[in-house]
UniProtKB/TrEMBL annotation:
Catalyzes the initial step of the lipid cycle reactions in the biosynthesis of the cell wall peptidoglycan: transfers peptidoglycan precursor phospho-MurNAc-pentapeptide from UDP-MurNAc-pentapeptide onto the lipid carrier undecaprenyl phosphate, yielding undecaprenyl-pyrophosphoryl-MurNAc-pentapeptide, known as lipid I. The gene is mraY. It comes from Cryobacterium shii. One of its GO terms (cellular component) is plasma membrane. This is Phospho-N-acetylmuramoyl-pentapeptide-transferase. The keyword Transmembrane helix applies. It comes from the Bacteria. NCBIfam families: mraY (TIGR00445). It is found in: Cell membrane; Membrane. One of its GO terms (biological process) is cell wall organization. Its main location: membrane.
Length: 363
C-alpha cells in the first residue's frame, strides 16, 4: 500500500514540477504542434504549442515506479515491467511519428502502415513475453484464454501450441492496436484524452487492489476457492497504474484548456498501450469496452463516418469526425465538449468497475 501511494505521489510531483521545464525545452527544440488545415478554425491558434508531452508522463511513471519500489524495499515482478515495456515501446513509435511531423512541418508523420508495423512489433513482443516467467504457482503474467471479468473457457492453446500461440499474438496485437489508436483519436481537444485516461487507468488501481485482496485470502494456487482471482501480481499492477495516473494528473494541469503542451502521439499511443496491457494482465481485456468506452465511442465515430462516406459516395453523418469535432462545429465551447465527454467516460468506467464487483458478489 505504501508503494502504491508513493508511486502515485512521486509521479504527480514529477509532472507538476518538471513539465514547465520540458515545455521550454521542447519549444527551444522546435517541437511545436502542427495543425491540420481541414480542422476547426479555432484550433489554428494552437499552432506551435509544445507537443510530445508523453515523454514527461513516461519519464514520471518509470522513475516514480522504480523509486517507490526501491524505497519500500519491494520486489519488482514481471507484470508491471511488461506494462512499462508496452508504454515505453508504443511511446517510442509515437515519438518517431511526432518527430517527423515537427521536422517536416506537416500534420502527417509516419505512414499508416509504418505506425501499425511499429505497434505490431511492440505488441507481439509483449504477447510472447507475457506467457513466459511463471511464478511458483505456474501462473504467467498473461493468460492464453480470452477474458472478460475473469478468464473464459475459450483458450487459444486448445488449437495446439503453435497455432494457439500465433492466434494469441494476433489477438493481443488487435487489442493493443485498437486501444492505442482509439486513445490517439480521442486526443483532439485540450485535456480530453488526458482526463479520460485518468479515469480509465484509475479503474485498474481499484481492480488490481481488489484482486490482490482476494488473492491474499484465496491464493493463486487455489483460485477456484471462495471467489479469488487467478491473476499474477495484481497489487503491482495497481502500483504501476497509480504511477501512470499520478503523472497524468500532474500533466493535466498544463494540458487543460488553454493547453500549454499536448500529449502528441508519444503520449496517446503510450497511454493506450499501457491501458491495453493492464487489461490483458488483469484478465479483463473485454471489459475495456466499458472501461475505455469513451475511446471506443470516439474511434467508432471515425469508422462509421468513413464507412457512410464511402457507401453514400460523399455524404456524412457527422459534421466532422472524431465526434468531439462534430460538437465543436455545432457551436459547443471546447471546454464544454471536454467536460461532458469526461462525464460520459466516467459513467462508463463506473459501469465497468461496477460490473467487475457485481460478478464477484454473484460468484
Amino acid at each position: 500500500m505504501r508503494a502504491l501511494l508513493m508511486a502515485g505521489a512521486f509521479s504527480l510531483v514529477f509532472t507538476l514540477a518538471f513539465t514547465p521545464l520540458f515545455i521550454r525545452l521542447f519549444k527551444k527544440l522546435g517541437w511545436g504542434q502542427f495543425i491540420r488545415d481541414d480542422g476547426p478554425q479555432s484550433h489554428h491558434a494552437k499552432r506551435g504549442t509544445a507537443t510530445m508531452g508523453g515523454i514527461i508522463i513516461i519519464l514520471g511513471t518509470v522513475i516514480s515506479y522504480f523509486s517507490a519500489m526501491w524505497i519500500t524495499g519491494s520486489h519488482i515482478p514481471m507484470s508491471p515491467l511488461l506494462v512499462l515495456f508496452m508504454m515505453v515501446g508504443l511511446g517510442f513509435v509515437g515519438f518517431i511519428d511526432d518527430f517527423l511531423k515537427t521536422r517536416n512541418q506537416r500534420s502527417l508523420g509516419l505512414g499508416g502502415w509504418a505506425k501499425v508495423i511499429g505497434q505490431v512489433i511492440v505488441a507481439s513482443t509483449f504477447a510472447l513475453l507475457s506467457i513466459q516467467f511463471p511464478n511458483i504457482n505456474g501462473v504467467t503474467p498473461a493468460s492464453t484464454k480470452i477474458s472478460l471479468l475473469r478468464d473464459l473457457p475459450l483458450d487459444f492453446m486448445q488449437l495446439g501450441a503453435i497455432i494457439g500461440t500465433i492466434l494469441f499474438v494476433i489477438w493481443i496485437c488487435l487489442i493493443v492496436a485498437a486501444t492505442s489508436n482509439s486513445v490517439n483519436v480521442t486526443d483532439g481537444l485540450d485535456g480530453l484524452a488526458t482526463g479520460s485516461s485518468i479515469l480509465s487507468i484509475g479503474a485498474f488501481i481499484v481492480i488490481g487492489f481488489w484482486q490482490s485482496n482476494q488473492a491474499r485470502f484465496g491464493g493463486a494456487d487455489v483460485a477456484d476457492l471462495y471467489r479469488s482471482y487467478d491473476v499474477r501480481d495484481p497489487l503491482d499492477l495497481a502500483i504501476v497504474s497509480a504511477a501512470i495516473v499520478g503523472g497524468l494528473i500532474g500533466f493535466l494541469w498544463y494540458n487543460t484548456s488553454p493547453a500549454k503542451i499536448f500529449l502528441g502521439d508519444t503520449g496517446s499511443l503510450a497511454i493506450g498501450g499501457a491501458l491495453a496491457a493492464l487489461a490483458i494482465l488483469s484478465r479483463t481485456e473485454l471489459l475495456l469496452v466499458l472501461i475505455g468506452g469513451l475511446f471506443v465511442f470516439e474511434a467508432g465515430s471515425v469508422i462509421v463516418q468513413r464507412a457512410y462516406f464511402k457507401l453514400t459516395r460523399g455524404k456524412r453523418i457527422f459534421l466532422m469526425s472524431p465526434i468531439h469535432h462534430h460538437f465543436e462545429l455545432k457551436g459547443w465551447a471546447e471546454v464544454t465538449v471536454v467536460v461532458r465527454f469526461w462525464i460520459i467516460g466516467g459513467l462508463l468506467v463506473a459501469a465497468g468497475v461496477g460490473s467487475f464487483y457485481l460478478e464477484w458478489l454473484a460468484s
